[in-house]
Amino acid sequence: MFSEPKDGRYQQISPSPWGATVELPTPVNITLDTEKLKDYAD
Predict the structure, then answer these.
(1) Which of 3, 5, 18, 24 fits a disulfide with 28 by CB distance 3.0 to 4.6 angstroms?
(2) Where is this region: Disordered (predicted)?
(3) Contact 26, 42 (CB under 8 A)
(4) What count of Cα atoms within 13 Å lies in the side-chain half-sphere of residue 42?
(5) Contact, 2 vs 9, CB < 8 A?
(6) Which residues of the chain form beta strands (DSSP E)?
């Protein structure tokens, strides 16, 4: 979901479960594997 700029910044909200692979769009352009982040979740 995209939103209009707020305070000069765009925001995108895409909920995903812990451990999912997340695609970060331009200008970052990386695929983030969040599996290891499970170790830090409550």
Answers:
(1) 24
(2) 1-24
(3) no
(4) 0
(5) no
(6) 21-24, 30-33
**What pTM, to 2 d.p., does this model score?**
0.52
Cα–chain-centroid distance for residue 34? 10
List C-alpha distances in Å: 5 to 9, 10, 28, 36, 41: 5, 4, 18, 31, 30
pLDDT digits (tens, 9 = 90+) for 1-38: 555 677 877 777 788 898 999 988 888 899 999 999 88
